[in-house]
Every structure is written in structure tokens, then in C-alpha cells.
Amino acid sequence: IITVAAREGSANLYRFDAESGIAREITHGKHAVQSYRSSDGGRRIVALISTPVEIGDLFSIGDGEPRRLTHVNSALFSQLNLTMPEEIWYQSFDGTKIHAWVQRPADFQPGRKYPLILDIHGGPHSAYGWVFDHEFQWFAANGYLLLYPNPRGSTSYGQEFGNIIQYKYPGDDYRDLMAGVDELIKRGWADPDQLGVTGGSGGGVLTNWTVTQTDRFKAAVSQRDISNWASWWYTADFTLFQPEWFRQPPFRDPQEYASRSAITSVEKIRTPIAFILGEADWRTPPESGGEQLFRALKFLKRPTAMVRFPNETHELSRSGQPWHRIERLRAILGWMDKYIRGKDVAQFRDVMNAAEKQ
């Protein structure tokens, strides 16, 4: 059996013996095999392989090293200054080793501190890795340092690491993320007074949670998030993990849902936070996510904004309409620029009116 398996952020092809289960690596290296096809029983395979500086090209895989067949984006990429991220491992609060990547601006200068954006992946059972991500390159091109870690709960580090957050999400994964921020500050790369945080889906959950736990971040953008677990339980199309995340439904144990919901602690939020939502998102319906926090924060006269995209689903950032995907990136960057760098951003110029600022 030939399939893709992920390990510590890399995704490679493996050949599994159907009787013994013994695995043999077909490809190896720091990249991501995204898809593959064979017409001769697996003796020769054509695979689509991506790296942090290559969106994806076709490679022929036989007995030796993969042979590259295409250079689809060479003309475009020859005009861009794309850089490889730096791989780091750091120690969390309890000694757990956390894997992460740092995307630095192309003109990064040692000794200079940069504004930092912590980018949190969704899932929560998924992982960042050695694959192209235009967002990281985009923010780095605009002068930001990007930290994207795989906290506990992430896949590709073993079953125990992935399942340790069961019934405790969000929780210690937040502490893993903050340990990464502290690591980059300690290294002298990140400016502790210019911190931002963003994430989508499960990353939106943790973005919301983060700003209820600390005021260290100057800006936050929460995308397709969940702020009220009880509301989400009743309205989402995604019921697969509900029994694994909560022991009881909310009508039997409302306190557990409330204790893990950002809306419960909304009055603690002082960080300016924007919400990016898809109006056709049934995975994390806007009502159980950013809309509740937005309305509560408006009542509290705290700086907030809600950007809602018509006809967009939970896949907005991946397969949404192109102009919506561009507008989404501009909105995230604009919010960070406004509250981290103090820039005048027209889109968010009237976030708070005169009465609210008093």
C-alpha cells in the first residue's frame, strides 16, 4: 500500500507491506508530497511536491532521487524574493519540545528587532510544515517576522502528543504558543512591544483565547472562529469531534462549555481584535464565533471590527473567490499595521467613533 504519511512537519510517500505493516520510505526530505499517481503498480510514481519556496511541481519518482518534470512558476518566482523559513525547536512550560518555523523578512538584519505575528494553525489536529504558504511570504515581505508553531494537539508528532489536549482545549496549547513568542524575544528577533496574533478555525479559537489570557499583543485577527462552544454545538455542521472534545452536551454540563469559551471572559479583552467571517460558513457559523465577541466588544467600547464575506464558506482562505482572498489578506495586514505600527489604514479609520474613544 502506497500512501502519504506526515512526520514532524514533512509529508512523504511510504510503501506499507499489507501483511506485516512494515513501512519503507519512498521519498524523504523537508517537503510535502501533496498528491501522487502511478500507472504501473507503484514502480514509478509521479508526485506533486511543495516546499516553502515552491508552490508545487511534478516529480518522477523511481529507484533514485526524484527527477523534476515541471517548473510551473519559474517566470513569476524569478521576480520575487522568496526565502526559506528557519526551523526551530523550543521548550514549553513543562519541558515539552515544540517544533516551529520562523519566516523572516528577506532583508532580515541580525541585531534588529522586528514586529512579530504569531500564526496559529487550525484543526486543532493538523500541522504546519515544509510546504508553501503564500501568507507567510506576504507578511514577511511587508516587514513582519512570522512564527508558526505546532503546539500540543498537532499531528505528525505521534498519537500521545496529538491527543493530549482532549477535554483540555484550549489550554496548555496556548502556553506552548506563548513559549514560542518568548523564545523569539529571547533571541533578540522579535520586538516585545510589537506583537500580533492571528489564526483560523482552531487557530481562531486560540486567538480568541489568547486575548482573554494576556494583554501582550497589540493586535489580533481571529478568522472563522468559535467563541461560544455551546452555541457551536447546536449550530455547526461538524459533529464528528464533539464527543471527543466534551464529555457531555451543553444542556447537561453548561459550565464546561462556558469555562472553555472566550465569550465568558470577553470583559478581559483589551487587545484590538478584528474578526474575518464567511457568511456561508457552517463549520464555524459566524453567530457562534466572531459575531458574539464583536457585539460584546462594541457594547464595551473596545476597538474591534467584523469583516464578513458574502457566499464564502469555511474554505475562504483556501478556495474562496480570488478577490475575496486578496481582500482578506489586506484586511489582516491592515489591522496589524494600524495597531502594531500605528499606520493610518483607511479601511479601519473609523473603528471607534469619538464617543467610544472617551
Give a structural overview.
The protein has 358 residues and is an alpha/beta fold. It has twelve helices and 15 strands. The chain has helices spanning 74-77, 134-141, 159-163, 172-186, 202-213, 229-235, 242-245, 254-259, 290-299, 316-319, 322-340, 354-357, and strands spanning 2-7, 10-16, 23-25, 32-37, 45-51, 54-61, 67-68, 86-91, 97-103, 114-120, 145-150, 190-200, 219-223, 273-278, 304-309. The strands form three sheets. An eight-stranded mixed sheet has the order 8-9-11-10-12-13-14-15, with helices on both faces.
Write a compact overview of the structure shown:
By secondary structure, this protein is α/β, with parallel strands linked by helices. The protein has helices at residues 74-77, 134-141, 159-163, 172-186, 202-213, 229-235, 242-245, 254-259, 290-299, 316-319, 322-340, 354-357; strands spanning 2-7, 10-16, 23-25, 32-37, 45-51, 54-61, 67-68, 86-91, 97-103, 114-120, 145-150, 190-200, 219-223, 273-278, 304-309.
Characteristic terms for this protein:
single chain; about 350 residues; alpha/beta; 12 helices; 15 strands; globular
